[in-house]
Amino acid sequence: xxxxxxxxxxxxxxxxxxxxxxxxxxxxxxxxxxxxxxxxxxxxxxxxxxxxxxxxxxxxxxxxxxxxxxxxxxxxxxxxxxxxxxxxxxxxxxxxxxxxxxxxxxxxxxxxxxxxxxxxxxxxxxxxxxxxxxxxxxxxxxxxxxxxxxxxxxxxxxxxxxxxxxxxxxxxxxxxxxxxxxxxxxxxxxxxxxxxxxxxxxxxxxxxxxxxxxxxxxxxxxxxxxxxxxxxxxxxxxxxxxxxxxxxxxxxxxxxxxxxxxxxxxxxxxxxxxxxxxxxxxxxxxxxxxxxxxxxxxxxxxxxxxxxxxxxxxxxxxxxxxxxxxxxxxxxxxxxxxxxxxxxxxxxxxxxxxxxxxxxxxxxxxxxx
Length: 369
Ligand SMILES: Nc1ncnc2c1ncn2[C@@H]1O[C@H](COP(=O)(O)OP(=O)(O)OP(=O)(O)O)[C@@H](O)[C@H]1O
Fold this sequence. Notes:
It is built from eleven helices and 13 strands. It is of the alpha/beta class. Strand 6 (189-191) and strand 7 (194-198) form a beta hairpin. The protein is elongated, with a radius of gyration of 23 Å. Residues 131, 134-140, 162, 165, 167, 241, 293-294, 329, 331-332, 335-336, 339 line the site of adenosine-5'-triphosphate.
């Protein structure tokens, strides 16, 4: 008989810590692996000083697990956070066991082992919005699409997973830090009818984020599993540009229903968009389609139409790759100003809002929202 992870965690819950809670409720168990009768795990203390006081707990935890039926050898190691890394989350302490201070939630710890792809229970569809190149308007498209879908009566969530340059708080006009009243779950914000969460809102915005892959994975896992998203028709995930750890983690570890790629028509952007498409295909994430942004510019003075980033490049690329072209959005001053003001252009009723409404309708017709 092989011991299960749940049995081990249940056993560890029996071990009460001197300052309250147990190893599981205090989220200290890491890297639990069960290899037949061999069990290994790590106990991660919030700091080296606490770790030094926990040797007896480590030994007791090892002994308890070793006594479980089906376990031949259990080994537990102690580690500790080495202080706050650069770009560390605000309140980067483990959730306090008690006391007067408000519980805080550590963002970006080591990921927990998963048995199934992440998809919060109440969410019907999860769509990632990516781009190869930065600055092509992926966040602008994400926020406006979210608002346009909400205007159609859909329950929409928007997760800003761009930890290196989170822009949704500004674009959606919601910069308050989400609360974590119990130190375990995060209450997302609401803006313009959209349920919003940004990893950036949990970080110190004055510091650059220097995170290793595992911490990124842990942070994304938390966004998917600890945020109280509630019932949603669709969760849009605004990815960072490129094909890095965030994209890989989400593609491999969460149940994405599709990916949308935003690109400008210029060659350098298309070159990178192709790489992003290739990555999603490799990860077997269905490609919903491409969106051409900054496709044309209408001079407000004379009405002349110009194509500063080229013309038709995304349509041609989409046709070549056999991916639908979902829409072409112009370069538009009002779109930029609305984004900067935290009131996405899709909230209004002008031509740009209509273009986003058409995009939203298409996703709804395709059964993706
Ligand atoms: N169609 C558009 N017309 C005018 N300005 C736009 C348009 N799309 C995006 N912008 C502006 O371009 C800038 C970059 O857009 P945005 O932040 O959405 O791009 P991104 O691809 O998400 O960038 P990053 O790589 O930094 O995440 C922003 O100032 C935004 O307001």
